[in-house]
Amino acid sequence: MSNPDQMVMGTEAFDCGIQKRLVYAGKYPIEYHDGTKVYFHFKIIEPNSGVVMDDSKKINEKKPMELIIGKKFKIETWEKCIRTMWLNEVARFSVVKELLYDFPIAAKQLRDYYAKICESKHHKEETHRHHCCGFNIMEHGVGYEDLDILLKSPKNLDFIFEIVKVEQPGEYKKDPWSLTEEEKIKQLPILKENGNNLFKEKKFEEACKQYEEALGYLEQLMVKEKPNDVEWNQWNEIKIPILLNYCLCKYNLGEFYSCLEHLNTILECQPNNTKALYRRAKVNASIWNLPEARNDFKLCAELDPTLKNDILNQLNQLDKLEALQYRKEAEKFKGKLFS
After folding, report:
1. What is the mean pLDDT of residues 306-330?
2. What is the mean pLDDT of the chain?
């Protein structure tokens, strides 16, 4: 066989690794660069039987697959094929099995991806199967019968691609996974400022999204460091103010338990963080954990004497609320306890 990485147009390519046949001519040529984002539909066909294994249009026609050139797409052969195509072109590629040994694993990930964005019953059932890796994959398979067969006995496959849309670098907002570490770091102050501005406008849900994106980047940066090492602590110092702002949004949205969980996380790292203590006290008061609220308010006053008057006011409010609740309960059971 010829070089399996070679791609040849036309019917004379029987002995090459990838053979392309034009199904529908494209409108315009595409200049492919590292970072070019391609939206495309795909169909996977077993050529001998003609069985269609997967069809992205049937799964979700409104959600084409996305590929960013140069970002090591899970199926390397697909990127190689797509690089030859024009906008709106439809082409069929026949690929030899020697280039598809890892395809079943990547195909499983594709199916799982589509299962998350559609209501397909078949995919929902399938994604609850094996999540194996390494040596276990060969023993247990990937959880899809047709892919398990391919894993044990690789076959030549046909792929039909349709290029739906193309965006060049700078024309689209990069997905978080495609950002470099430097790009993520540059985004942090921008996202924080965006969140702060949206909070001032009382657009709490929109502000949450900005803070969430920033916190996601920080988690990715921190996971590379050893907890409590210098670099990890530096990222954590940036994270905590953003997380505090995020908690304030959650509080204003009435999501008290989510807010409480994040505040507890902050206080595990910084037990004397007065902002976190004060906000946790407010949250506990809102969910009627009054003893916990009092303790946090009192600790705040000890740590920051400038808050003393405000804390006294908050404690008085708690006393009034508790007394009011007691009277309501007493009225409810009045004359019933011994009747």
Report:
1. 83
2. 84
Query: pLDDT of 151-169, one tens digit each?
Result: 889 999 999 999 999 999 8
Q: What is the 3-state secondary structure (H, E, C) of the chain?
A: CCCCCCEEECCCCCCCCEEEEEEECCCECCCCCCCCEEEEEEEEEECCCCEEEEEHHHHHCCCCEEEECCCCCCCHHHHHHHCCCCECCEEEEEECHHHCCCHHHHHHHHHHHHHHHCCCHHHHHHCCCCCCCCHHHHHHCCCCHHHHHHHHCCCCEEEEEEEEEEECCCCCCCCHHHCCHHHHHHHHHHHHHHHHHHHHCCCHHHHHHHHHHHHHHHHHHHCCCCCCCHHHHHHHHHHHHHHHHHHHHHHHCCCHHHHHHHHHHHHHHCCCCHHHHHHHHHHHHHCCCHHHHHHHHHHHHHHCHHHHHHHHHHHHHHHHHHHHHHHHHHHHHCCCCCC
Mean pLDDT of 296-322: 90
In tens, the pLDDT along 37-73 reads 999 999 999 999 999 999 999 888 788 999 999 887 7
